[in-house]
Design goal:
The chain is mainly α. It contains four helices and no strands. Helix 2 crosses helix 3. The model has no long low-confidence stretch (mean pLDDT 79).
Length: 83
């Protein structure tokens, strides 16, 4: 795995399912607050809205690897792939 080559990363964090479990708990919690959904579409809107919010947070604030640290590796792998 390419990500294991970065010393700044806690390897336990990226190999754990804690993030997935926390996401599922939060979706359950938010759906319990609503109670009964009038349709499947309304439930999907709630879940989608939460996942979009979650993705934005992780992309900007909580990322384990910041994009600027990945750029050199990404450019190197693109150069190797072109050969």
């Amino acid at each position: 795995m390419l990500f294991y080559n970065f010393p700044e990363i806690d390897k336990c964090r990226i190999s754990s399912t804690n993030v997935l479990e926390r996401t599922n708990r939060e979706i359950r919690r938010r759906s319990r607050v609503v109670g009964v959904f009038p349709s499947i579409e309304s439930y999907l809107r709630l879940v989608t809205a939460y996942l979009i919010e979650y993705t934005e947070d992780w992309a900007n604030e909580y990322a384990y690897i910041k994009p600027e640290k990945l750029r050199p590796v990404w450019n190197e792998s693109l150069a190797q792939g072109a050969n």
